[in-house]
Amino acid sequence: MARPKVLVLRAAGTNCDMETAFAFSRAGAVVERVHINQLKSRAKELSRYQILALPGGFSYGDDLAAGKILANELKYTLADALRDFIKNGKLIIGICNGFQILVKAGLLPGNSNSEQEVTLTINDSGKFEDRWTYLKSPQSTVHSPQIKCVWISGLSEVIYLPVAHGEGKFMAKDKAVLERLENNGQVVLRYCDEKGNPAQYPDNPNGSENAIAGLSDETGRIFGLMPHPERHSFGWQNPRWTRQGLKKEGDGLLIFRNGVEYARKLI
Amino acid sequence: MAVYKVKVFDKQGVFDAVGQGVLRDIRDLGIESAKEARFAFLYYLSGDIDETVVRRIAEELLIDKITQEYSIESSHRQMAGCRHGRQEPKAENRELIEVAYNSGVMDPVEESLLKAVSDMGISGLNSARTARQYILEGSLSDRELKIISEKLLYNKVIQHIVKSTVHSPQSTALSQGGYKFKLLTIDLLKASDKKLCQISRQGQLFLNLSEMRQIRDYFKKLGRKPTDVELETIAQTWSEHCRHKTFRGKIEYVEEIRNPKSEIRNKPKTQNPKPKTKIINNLLKSTIMKVTKELNKPWCVSVFEDNSGVIKFDDEYNICFKVETHNHPSALEPFGGANTGIGGVIRDPMGTGLGAKPIFNTDVFCFGPPDYPQGKLSRGVLHPKRVAKGVVSGVRDYGNKMGIPTINGAVLFDPGYIANPLVCCGTAGILPKDKSFKKVSRGDLIVVAGGRTGRDGIHGATFSSGELTEKSEEISGGAVQIGNPITEKKVLEALLQARDKNLYSAITDCGAGGLSSAVGEMGEKLGARVDLEKVPLKYQGLSYAEIWISEAQERMVLAVPKENIDELLELCAGENVEAVVIGEFSGTKKLELFYQGNKVGNLDTDFMHNGLPRTIKKAVWKQLRYQEPDFNCPQDLTETLKKLLGHYNISSKEWVIRQYDHEVQGGSVLRPLVGIANDGPSDAAIVKPRLETDRGVIVSCGINFKFGLIDPYWMAASSIDEALRQIIAVGGSLKEAALLDNFCWGNPDKPDRLGSLVRAALGCYKIAKGFGTPFISGKDSLYNEYSVEGKSQAIPGTLLISAIAVMDDVTQAVSMDAKKEGNLIYVIGDTFDELGGSHYFDILGFIGNNVPKVDVKRAKLLMERVSLASRRSLIRAAHDCSEGGLAVALAEMAFAGGLGMEIFLSEVPYRTVHSPQSIVHSKRNDTILFSESNSRFIVEVEKKKQKEFEKLMRGVSCGLIGCVSEKRYFKVYGLDNKPCVEADIYDLKESWQKPLRWG
Description:
The structure holds 2 protein chains of 2 kinds.
Chain A: E1 5-10, H1 17-26, E2 30-35, H2 36-40, E3 51-54, H3 68-77, H4 79-87, E4 91-95, H5 97-104, E5 118-121, E6 129-136, E7 158-165, E8 169-172, H6 175-183, E9 187-192, E10 212-216, E11 222-225, H7 241-244, H8 253-264
Parallel strand pairs in A: 1-2, 1-3, 3-4, 4-11
Antiparallel strand pairs in A: 5-8, 6-7, 6-9, 9-10, 10-11
Helix pairs in contact in A: 3-5
Chain B: E1 2-10, H1 17-28, E2 36-47, H2 51-62, E3 68-74, E4 94-101, H3 108-119, E5 125-137, H4 142-153, E6 159-161, H5 172-175, H6 193-202, H7 209-222, H8 228-237, H9 240-243, H10 245-248, E7 250-256, E8 277-280, H11 283-286, H12 288-295, E9 300-302, E10 309-312, E11 317-325, H13 327-332, H14 334-350, E12 357-367, H15 384-402, E13 406-413, E14 422-432, E15 445-450, H16 460-463, E16 468-469, H17 472-475, H18 485-500, E17 506-509, H19 514-522, E18 528-531, H20 544-549, E19 555-560, H21 565-574, E20 579-585, E21 590-595, E22 598-604, H22 605-610, E23 616-622, H23 638-645, H24 654-657, E24 668-670, E25 673-674, E26 680-681, E27 685-687, E28 696-703, H25 705-710, H26 712-729, E29 737-744, H27 751-771, E30 775-781, E31 785-788, E32 791-794, E33 798-807, E34 824-828, E35 831-832, H28 839-844, H29 856-871, E36 877-880, H30 885-897, E37 900-904, E38 910-911, H31 925-930, E39 937-941, H32 946-952, E40 958-965, E41 969-973, E42 979-984, H33 985-993
Parallel strand pairs in B: 7-23, 12-13, 16-31, 18-21, 29-30, 35-38, 37-41
Antiparallel strand pairs in B: 1-2, 1-3, 2-5, 4-5, 4-6, 7-8, 9-10, 10-11, 11-14, 12-14, 15-19, 15-20, 17-19, 18-20, 21-22, 24-27, 25-26, 27-28, 28-33, 29-33, 31-32, 34-39, 34-40, 36-39, 37-40, 41-42
Helix pairs in contact in B: 12-27, 14-15, 15-18, 18-21, 23-33, 26-27, 26-29, 30-33
């Protein structure tokens, strides 16, 4: 079977590239970790890959604001390559810092002129926190509109993934944007409690509006999320496996597999 | 050239998390008159740029359009009525406090901002400095504002308050003058003893008279005066920090034990009625290293040689581990001190062998009590809570940004650490077997890679080799720096690639002592030639000597064969890492330093490394007797248990742990927080450094400074026992377990301090040898004393033992949380009447005398059995008994599992007499519950495995003491079979979580 190619982008301060690459390769992809300089010098061509993954970390120290400087760099130095990549129906995933980058580069939720419409800002607690969260994806609710996000299909009603960030509070520019996202089915991951009910802190770990943890663009191919699916791709990564028994795989692996399965069709 | 000040602040209605945090901290100071606190970022942009450009930068980069807005002022004119933002109106009861970095302190944001602006295609921006503005509302008096500023908002060691102007605050790039070369020599050839001492003191060399004489005689022989840089090089090479003069010197040791028949178990060698002087030739070699040598484990790959200790992991990889202290800098500037502390220890594995990839961090802190009254602090001492918060932030910032999980540690509080906090940071790494050794060859080029060199951290190595005083922040402020983790992260990425391409032959980190130490060590056998003007600088104005001894962060030194240099430099450039050739390993056995072609230093490497005169120090350990409490055992001990759970040393450290990323790299198998709500205290942590295999690494720590007040020998024994039993509790074994030591003591020139240190080292030898666990690395931090007006106070001598063990199969890990109702609860190991130094006595205001001991033979057997039981999957939960004894351990298991327990004290294996020296009391409930005897575990076993488990435990003390119950009720029946503790587990948990649940 053909194996899609994933480019895991690195820049100064990226730090979840190895485990993200590992999760993609377990999901059946051929993965390369590529430094942004290699794309800029065209030593590597983005067009040769089917999936672009922006992993977690602190790109450029998250100076100014989380993800800001790398978002700026993408916008100014790789705009054409990115536009073509998206236009050709390929996939992008941004995890944690990657999500922050996508949002600040205007690629999520996405509009024609890449204007930033939402943000991920300082947690209400005012500090970095590492904790496990329950997440709900909306395809399980009867009233939700058509969800197009290719990354989340088949997820169980409530999944369990860790967050680790200081700037993950989702905020939209205004009510209209928030409503549009909700109505378009672009809100694809929400913090919840163990049973799937609406969440307060610490279940909603940062104070996000509408408890939004993950977002897709209108096509459903660009996906960003604050939690780390790559940190729960094995059963032993679940913090409670010593209580609940060891499962063969973790809740996050399916997200990578979904992406890889979809990308097979693009080869 | 124009300077613009851009102020970025939250839009109205946006929750200002930073401001709210500041307000909370102000209230913590006891100042109620502050009604509101807001926060703004200030950016000073200067260069050939106009306002349009500044607006573009502000709108596209500096603000988050969704939440923030901005205003601009320029040095030409005030831009009133700015379109895009509100000016802060002058108002009654509103104070603006602006805090900026001092000149010479690295501002990490500047580099990023300049890069981003250049990405935008904008040229002309020369410098960008940042500052923070705090806007305080409320009728605050000048005194209150001063307190808020000094105690909370800035630290004069690295920052200052900006008076309201638009001019860039002390721009590093612009205000430094150039440097004109002038060779400086020091006239010591004819110096008298008095003069020698004066030169040492004034130059902050921290060298003693005999060392200064040695140096004088060396230069007399050469027939010339030393240059400043030569003297600095020697001082730094010979510093306590680098040479461990105390541990390697000669010690005359006298031990005065009160009861000559004491120490029945594990007798130390000296025990005569009349104290006899024992000569210890090299304390390190005759205790710590002796264990390793005698055990001679085949899996010890490289010990006490490299920047960290290396042991075997599997057939392809080795693991290395190092724990460092950064106490002095953290006392002066907690954030920066801890920040560079963790940054520094991460470079140890990076500089081990040919470079290891860091896999986890640990941190152990000792602070003063967080509720200590502000008014009682000595001059120049920061409040313990501020120190604690700053230190935690410093470790969080660096560890998280490096992408290394921080997974183990401890936080302890005691008044003894108020002026001298202890900050111990550790890092382990993984490296390929065939990359575990280095060898510099003649002709290799010297390359410095990473951060640029500035005036930061000058005299750090020598500064840490002296006591702190109330003047330290003025004199030694330059020794404190803040780090830039992203620079180090870039270096790491580049190095690992270069290592795997075999581009260099040796590597070491630039730590204390800077280039002087790094190049000096690497060139010890061959000699080196360095052209100092080639070292990249942060700003102009550094003299050749400053370049050589600067301890600027994030630098590594490599030895690169000439044929690889182009490829190495190209690789570094591709990762945006600055790497420069600064010299060559010459083969002349001389260290030759040049600046712009002028010879500024020429020392024999042999003299540098072997010329240090050996010190002879006196050490006396006198056993102290403390008052023994005399009271009846209370019938109900529920409140006592709650008080103990709320003891700062025992209570939950979740506030700290949550701020660290303990998941990054994806390898965390057992985290610091475990249980049904992920908030119970794990005994040790387990990581899988290779995700594709089942092998793991366990890490734990033991620290019991209170026991050291009674007897440092048993403190050492207890710390080793504690660290090892945590390894065992999580399912590990002693088979491939290794130890690290960190001795933090007072001034070793004082015989009582040194005496207690020697006694602890003797304990280390006996007990580690008995367990069969070698030491693989260690570090001592001495001179932890603070003197005010000539009166000196030392910290309690504190030994930190860190343990690391390889685990064959991580799926056999055991966590400490109670798992299921109906399961049986056992205690393994004897409980003794050993309340000396316990937390129970502490809350009663006593120290006591019956310090917990270790019967190492029995302890080892017991640990091996428990380990075997985990491997046979007989254990559902295990927890080690330490601070707070059985009661605390049982309660923690119960509430971590969200389950109750019923426990019967009459079933606890108990022995009264430990040694004839012990004071014998009757057997009572509080002793059983709260004694902190070593070598004990609480274990949860399923009923169906009872027989198999009990059979395996034959020959070791093992008592079935109760069971897990479904009701969320924790109940303990005393010796009279009447309840002595009864509580809801959630009440117990609240008592445990509340004290350190800081905002």
